[in-house]
Amino acid sequence: MKEWKEFLQPYKQAVSELKVKLKGLRAQYELEVVHTPVEFVTGRVKPLPSIYDKTLEKGIPFEPSSELASELPDIAGLRIMCQFVDDIPTVVRALRERKDLRVVEERDYIARKKPSGYRSYHMIIEYPVQTIHGEKTILAEIQIRTLSMNFWASIEHSLNYKYEGEMPEEIRHRLERAAEAAFQLDEEMSQIRDEIQDAQQYFSAFKETATRSYPNKKKKGGREE
What we know:
The chain is of the alpha+beta class. It is 50% helix and 21% strand.
């Protein structure tokens, strides 16, 4: 287990650092008093059982190695959640322009959804981690998606795990329909994006001020109406 701990430590460090940096994107947009395309950020290091399953799928030894690091670019994984589909290209451009990481691969599962209905934008990056033994560059995967895409993907992942990849046909069809419904929700929200953002700004401004007064309710029969 010591070998695995040493192997995975740079990935854990990368996830921790990248979460802070990517959350910083949101703070920077907020300082500019503009709409932030980043709703929130999550991250994780793939657990050993999942790594083991992947090695079986790819036919590679289940042991810490450069081959494993190359074949499994998502050992370190981060997700950036957006409110609107239109926010995703903004985040993608911001990541391409960063100097502290290098994008090596992109997969657009929004323009070209998977047969299951899965939608998300994936970026494989190289990220340098500073260790006591020097710099170590690792691969990490960043998934960028809307909240509704993430909800659907989480449910689909749980069902696939339950049925070990052999999902009943009826459930699979329902999931496909749900994926389309989730995408239609994103499309509808995009159509009223300006109204939503105006409402959110109004609400934020209201929360930050304690000066708003409310009219006294007229009392009738000693009770408030």
